[in-house]
Design a protein that fits this description.
- The complex is a heterodimer of chains A (113) and B (115).
- Chain A has 113 residues and is mainly beta.
- With 115 residues, chain B is mainly beta.
- In chain B, the strands form two sheets. In chain B, strands 2, 4, 5, 6, 9, 10 and 11 form a seven-stranded mixed β-sheet that branches. Chain B has a four-stranded antiparallel β-sheet with strand order 1-3-8-7, with no helix packed on it.
- In chain B, strand 4 and strand 5 form a beta hairpin.
- At the A-B interface, strand 5 and strand 6 of A face strand 5 and strand 9 of B.
Amino acid sequence: AQSVSQHNHHVILSEAASLELGCNYSYGGTVNLFWYVQYPGQHLQLLLKYFSGDPLVKGIKGFEAEFIKSKFSFNLRKPSVQWSDTAEYFCAVNGDSNYQLIWGAGTKLIIKP
Amino acid sequence: GAVVSQHPSRVICKSGTSVKIECRSLDFQATTMFWYRQFPKQSLMLMATSNEGSKATYEQGVEKDKFLINHASLTLSTLTVTSAHPEDSSFYICSATGRPNNEQFFGPGTRLTVL
């Protein structure tokens, strides 16, 4: 079955701490992977995406994610978080032949100033 | 990136009435639009997929007679919540894709409150 698992539902960090949000997926065939962010009171925005090529992808606002095919993972990282990174983060996957997204449950990230 | 708008952003209605939510792709032609519902403290739930000019495909458990979807043009899809009830109160989000590819562009969402 197709699914996306995000390991943590809530993460609380202090400013300047390093961040890693886990995402594992189960999906047959070639995958495309996404991280979306939803800031409080705002709509979903694409943070970064992986289609092919370099498995380390860089997104907006200093975020990056690494696709590890052998581990079926696409973890999101940021070396030093800011208070403004407080948001909910969603991992999602689809395939080349089916662009319907399969969503993770989301991770609420709270950064303490 | 491409822009998707939704209207209205917030709507409050009485129980038993119908509410229409519009989703527009402003600068591209959306061959496929998706409608999601977001419950508090939960992830997005796909309700239906609509392709321009054809009937929407509903996910299991979503009542097609209650959530009417019309994708009449390449830039507009509408979701009508018929005979709304308080349990229909939620955040409804649409997204659109303009090609058989991988990226969806999301609208800002519509907060529906049914009294």
